[in-house]
Task: inverse folding
């Protein structure tokens, strides 16, 4: 992968995603191509704008729907990154099939759970193309 070809910041509406965050979530999905994967997006919120500066991969496959590990991960991540001035600003999910564009029940429930803790959270459904 030639990272020099990627944009420094991918702009989507009022959401800006820095290259580091994007690369980490894509690599997590590529590393587990046949499994659903998820993680959280970290950054800052300023008014209506969300700046995503980093991402933390969480789970893949059968681990995705386990709520206790998710709650522990969210608390740990928030405590660690808050000292760096970052907070959880979103959730990302990639389905196990590249042609699946739906957010399944488990992923929707996790996104709702993240939203309960972080009401400003953005949701990113990652789609990798099969070449």
Result:
């Amino acid at each position: 992968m030639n990272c020099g070809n990627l944009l420094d910041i991918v702009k989507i509406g009022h959401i800006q995603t820095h290259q580091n965050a994007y690369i980490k979530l894509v690599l997590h999905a590529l590393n587990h191509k046949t499994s659903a994967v998820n993680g959280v997006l970290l950054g800052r919120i300023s008014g209506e704008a969300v700046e995503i500066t980093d991402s933390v991969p969480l789970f893949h496959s059968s681990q995705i729907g386990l709520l206790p590990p998710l709650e522990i991960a969210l608390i740990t991540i928030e405590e660690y990154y808050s000292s760096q001035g970052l907070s959880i600003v979103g959730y990302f999910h990639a389905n196990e099939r590249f042609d699946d564009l739906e957010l399944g029940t488990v992923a929707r429930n996790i996104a709702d759970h993240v939203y309960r803790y972080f009401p400003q959270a953005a949701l990113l459904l990652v789609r990798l193309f099969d070449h």
Notes: The longest strand covers residues 49-60. The mean pLDDT is 77. The first helix runs from residue 19 to 31.
